[in-house]
Design goal:
By secondary structure, the protein is α/β, with parallel strands linked by helices. It has helices at 9-12, 14-19, 24-42, 61-73, 91-110, 128-148, 163-172, 194-201, 232-240, 261-278, and strands at 3-8, 47-52, 76-81, 83-87, 115-122, 152-156, 178-183, 205-210, 212-216, 219-223, 248-252. It contains 10 helices and 11 strands. A 9-stranded parallel beta sheet has the order 3-2-1-11-8-7-6-5-4. It has a two-stranded antiparallel sheet with strand order 9-10.
């Protein structure tokens, strides 16, 4: 099994996109071509690309066929997020979100993704335990459909769920294709040690966002991998074990508020390539 360097395309150049006033197809093309250029510069063959169904300019089958061809000719492997499940007491809300999730899973599979990530649509009036319970019930349905389509699905640790809660939701479904998208930096936001949390969620890890932070003005701000608070020299050997039994994406995420996005992304690519080469996961 292989470790594949990837790009969380939309987040890596979101400031440039905003500054250039790019929307729709122009926005999409910009971040895809940035990823293609990085793959060529650093010799990532193939390279992963993280996108969400919501970011696609069109879901018309003709457009999706063109996009599949574009991925193939540029040696890009897609991870396509399906959106959300609803942790809501109102069954009508849960049903609407579930219906969209199921439709989006079909699109992710059609585009050739093997993994699809998601988040939870939370409601503040529902207790934490209640949100976990509703998530599990929704994921039993969505996860079963994902399995039928040959997909693994995984929830990212954003700024709320702990490692233990993410594990509880994955295990609670009883499905082996429901797991976790480990964002290495976001553990800092929930007050967890990224190294300890990475070890804890390792058996359930299907996808990763390799991200570093500094804490500035009360804000966790994205910087190049290896230039922030995350101890990658301890974390990456653990994270690499997730590729022992499956191909795993190490998708770089910069998501900075004030750094040069191109420089931060390039530095992240250099850092990851050097580490992977040094440890025998890729050739120079």
């Amino acid at each position: 099994m292989a470790i594949i360097v990837g790009s969380l395309a939309g987040q890596n150049w979101h400031r440039q996109v905003r500054q250039k006033n790019l929307t729709g197809q122009a926005r999409f093309d910009y971040v895809v071509e940035k990823t293609v250029a990085a793959a060529r510069t650093f010799g990532f063959r193939p390279m992963g690309i993280d996108l969400g169904v919501a970011a696609l300019p069109s879901t018309d089958r003709g457009y999706l066929d063109e996009l599949k061809h574009r991925f193939q000719e540029n040696n890009l492997l897609p991870m396509i997020g399906f959106g959300q499940v609803a942790c809501h007491y109102d069954s009508e809300v849960r049903e609407v979100v579930r219906k969209q999730a199921l439709a989006n899973l079909d699109i992710a599979a059609y585009l050739g993704a093997k993994v699809s990530n998601f988040g939870c649509q939370r409601n503040g009036r529902v207790t934490r335990a209640g949100q976990v319970r509703f998530a599990i019930e929704e994921l039993k349905v969505v996860g079963a459909e994902a399995r039928r389509l040959g997909l693994k699905i995984c929830q990212e640790n954003f700024d709320y769920w702990t490692a233990d809660e993410l594990i509880e939701m994955s295990v609670g479904t009883g499905l082996d294709n429901v797991g976790i998208n480990n964002d290495t930096g976001n553990w800092l936001i929930t007050g967890e040690d990224p190294v300890v949390a990475t070890e804890k969620v390792l058996p359930y890890t299907f996808h990763t966002h390799v991200r570093d932070y500094v804490l500035e003005e009360g804000t966790y701000n994205g910087v190049a991998v290896g230039e922030g608070l995350v101890d990658f020299e301890r974390l990456l050997p653990i994270l690499a074990k997730s590729g022992d039994k499956q191909d795993i994406f190490f998708s770089i995420e910069v998501d900075t508020d004030n750094r040069d996005e191109d420089q931060a992304f390039d530095n992240s690519c250099r850092y990851l390539k050097a580490w992977l080469t040094r440890h025998g996961h890729m050739t120079a």
